[in-house]
């Protein structure tokens, strides 16, 4: 039987349903590769997902600093909540990272929403809404993490695996491409990355047994330039890490669902990959299962994998490695730092993938042991049908997808840490396309949990820790003002002293944080903006807060005039 996929159709022009001007200044027309290469030097802007290609989430702005941050107050609030039905309504979250270009802010939301705002006031300039089917299969929430800007356009993906280019002045669609098979439960949530004349994207949907891939698209036309699958087919390098018989590789996962980083000197895009499928039933996929739970370094021009490093071979705990690959230098060496869900901090030589050292960054780890030289020894995992196994960290990891920051000024990493365990009971399931393919029932601990923002040097030595009672679930931001900004699950947005961890300021935002803040300036005035909207895969992170208020606001803070 052939099942025809019917698209959701043309969305209503949301700009026509509200009193918004429908036009923004043409500030992105001269955003090109050269400007993106030097994004951090434009400290008044936030031009890429991480603020710069290196993934450091660090700003040179210091008007707001450790001496005066106690004086900042809300400058404006934008309410992003919408009426009407959405896909996966119970699981939406405001997980975006706003981009700012010369006074205009570009913000993505859940369910295909996009807004352009006046960055100094929060005034809405235009909006776009993509048509997303109500029944689209989503593993872990109706979410979107951000956009990209270049050549007069803004680019973003939608939950039903579409890539869109919009005119940055009015939100009108320029082109649209399908980047995944929504019928097989592929989806998309990452912020695209502009490199040269390319747009890099990745797929989501590993919990449904899809085969992950990373794609490059022509920036102007949207035509596909290359595709690299993150699970090799038989005969390709890495295929020996999958069963020789059967089709396990075809549904192997390894999705790239969080934006990667880029080094123009090596011309490599560093992409983190997700868990294998099924998540917890390893008997149906014997072997290390490359390139799951890995960083793959791709030549940007061809998509060829130049090297890889696998953080959790033969994963049985759902320890995706999609989180940021932070690029930094130490003693003249080009390095990459990665805080993995498995609870360990890895430092690699980013020119060739050679491991430098490994260090734990969370208190409780009992799933297994990784020595400083990288030897992995599993200890606790669900290997028997119907037999519960408890382990730390749980499947959301010692750090979820949300991002660490690195300050070249202090030479410290600042990490949102989650310390919570879970129980998995293996339940073998036959693979069916479009259906969840976990291989276990999982219950995350509802109590006995903790979280922190922890500071580490590049050798993995902890320098300070700011503690809370719940696992951290939002990205942190570091600035040249010797500040670290972080949002908590219970709604507090805080500023910490980057050198000591002392809390210097706090504001209750009214809903939990599960996104990424950014900072910018307009007419010489610095702002810090944070999306506030609790939700997403809460049963896997903090099930005890499933009933907490969602929220859907964007709040900007600044010093008094």
Automatic annotation (TrEMBL):
GO molecular function: calcium ion binding; oxidoreductase activity, acting on CH-OH group of donors
Lineage top rank: taxon: Bacteria
Pyrrolo-quinoline quinone repeat domain: residues covered: 46-354, 462-528
Coiled-coil region list: none
Keywords linked to the UniProt accession: Metal-binding, Oxidoreductase
InterPro entries documented for this protein: PQQ_b-propeller_rpt, PQQ_MeOH/EtOH_DH, PQQ_rpt_dom, Quinoprotein_ADH-like_sf
Enzyme class: oxidoreductase
Pfam short name (any one): PQQ
NCBIfam families found in the cross-reference section: PQQ_enz_alc_DH (TIGR03075)
Descriptive protein name: PQQ-dependent dehydrogenase, methanol/ethanol family
């Amino acid at each position: 039987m052939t099942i025809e996929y019917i698209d959701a159709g043309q969305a209503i022009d949301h700009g026509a349903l509200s009193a918004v001007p429908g036009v923004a200044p043409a500030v992105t027309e001269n955003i090109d590769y050269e400007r993106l290469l030097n994004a951090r030097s434009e400290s008044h802007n936030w031009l890429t997902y991480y603020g710069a290609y290196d993934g450091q989430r660090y700003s040179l702005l210091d008007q707001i600093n450790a001496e005066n941050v106690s004086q900042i107050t809300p400058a404006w609030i934008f309410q992003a909540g919408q009426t009407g039905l959405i896909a996966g309504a119970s699981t939406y979250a405001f997980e975006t990272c706003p981009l700012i270009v010369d006074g205009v802010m570009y913000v993505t939301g859940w369910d295909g929403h996009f807004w352009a705002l006046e960055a100094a006031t929060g005034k809405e300039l235009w909006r776009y809404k993509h048509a997303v089917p109500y029944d689209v299969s989503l593993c872990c929430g109706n979410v979107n993490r951000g956009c990209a800007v270049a050549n007069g356009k803004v680019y973003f993906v939608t939950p039903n695996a579409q890539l869109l280019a919009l005119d940055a002045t009015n939100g009108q669609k320029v082109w649209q491409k399908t980047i995944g098979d929504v019928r097989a439960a592929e989806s998309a949530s990452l912020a695209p990355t502009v490199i040269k004349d390319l747009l890099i994207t990745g797929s989501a949907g590993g919990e449904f047994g899809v085969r992950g891939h990373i794609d490059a698209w022509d920036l102007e036309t949207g035509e596909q330039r290359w595709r690299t699958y993150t699970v090799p087919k038989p005969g390709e390098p890495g295929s020996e890490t999958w069963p020789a018989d059967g089709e396990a590789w075809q549904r192997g996962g390894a999705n790239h669902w969080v934006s990667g980083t880029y080094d123009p000197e090596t011309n490599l895009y560093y992409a983190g990959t997700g868990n294998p499928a099924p998540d917890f039933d390893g008997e149906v996929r014997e072997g290390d299962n490359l390139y799951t739970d890995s960083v793959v370094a791709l030549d940007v021009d061809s998509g060829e994998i130049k090297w890889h490093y696998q953080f959790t071979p033969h994963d049985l705990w759902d320890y995706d490695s999609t989180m940021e690959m932070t690029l930094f230098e130490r003693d003249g060496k080009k390095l990459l730092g990665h805080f993995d869900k498995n609870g360990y901090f890895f430092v690699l030589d980013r020119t060739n993938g050679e491991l430098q050292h490994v260090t734990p960054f969370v208190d409780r780890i009992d799933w297994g042991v990784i020595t400083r030289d990288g030897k992995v020894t599993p200890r606790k995992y669900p290997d028997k049908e119907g037999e519960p196994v408890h382990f730390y960290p749980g499947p959301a990891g010692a750090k979820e997808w949300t991002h660490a920051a690195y300050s070249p000024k202090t030479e410290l990493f600042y990490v949102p840490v989650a310390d919570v365990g879970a129980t998995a009971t293996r339940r073998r399931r036959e693979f069916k396309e479009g259906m969840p393919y976990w291989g276990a029932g999982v219950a995350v601990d509802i109590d006995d949990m903790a979280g922190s923002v922890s500071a580490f040097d590049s050798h993995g030595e902890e320098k300070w820790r700011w503690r809370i009672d719940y696992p951290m679930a939002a990205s942190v931001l570091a600035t040249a003002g010797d500040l670290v900004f972080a949002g908590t699950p219970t709604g507090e947005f805080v500023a910490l002293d980057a050198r000591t961890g002392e809390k210097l300021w706090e504001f209750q935002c009214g809903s939990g944080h599960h996104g990424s803040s950014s900072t910018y300036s307009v007419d010489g005035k610095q702002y810090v903006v944070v999306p506030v909207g609790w939700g997403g895969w809460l049963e896997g992170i903090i099930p005890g807060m499933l009933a907490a208020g969602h929220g859907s606001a964007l709040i900007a803070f600044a010093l008094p005039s």
